Task: inverse folding
């Protein structure tokens, strides 16, 4: 895996991955405003993306009728440098017709304990917790 981060101006950067996908990131404030997510916001988004990917993959493999999944993340950072994440809460909302709540909870648990490499890295400095809400769209 490779990526490149290039400085544009002020505190604005572009990040590019091997496949050519690109994102603007930075904390530049001024006339143009904030150009994109900060690096730490991207770390948080990546953690949620990794976990949500696992949950969907596990539920689809189990033939669960999943229609939607969101992962809302709330994080706290240390007050001193380096300001690592010290708490991360991941709240999953999974929707589908007749989803088995136990299977959804198990998918989140498997992601947290076995599959999500981003969560595993974050757990080295942060207390990572999870919540699950299952919404039956047939109701």
Result:
């Amino acid at each position: 895996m490779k990526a490149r981060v290039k400085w544009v101006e002020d505190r604005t950067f572009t990040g590019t991955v091997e496949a050519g996908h690109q994102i603007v990131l930075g904390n530049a404030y001024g006339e143009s405003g904030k150009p994109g997510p900060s690096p730490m916001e991207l770390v948080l988004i990546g953690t949620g993306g990794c976990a949500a990917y696992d949950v969907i993959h596990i539920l689809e493999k189990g033939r669960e009728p999943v229609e939607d999944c969101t992962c809302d993340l709330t994080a706290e950072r240390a007050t001193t440098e380096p300001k690592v994440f010290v708490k991360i809460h991941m709240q999953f909302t999974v929707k589908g017709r007749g989803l088995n709540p136990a299977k959804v909870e198990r998918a989140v648990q498997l992601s947290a304990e076995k599959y999500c490499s981003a969560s595993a890295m974050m757990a080295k400095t942060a207390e990572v917790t999870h919540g699950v809400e299952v919404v039956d769209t047939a109701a």
In short: The CA atoms of residues 54 and 115 lie 7 Å apart.
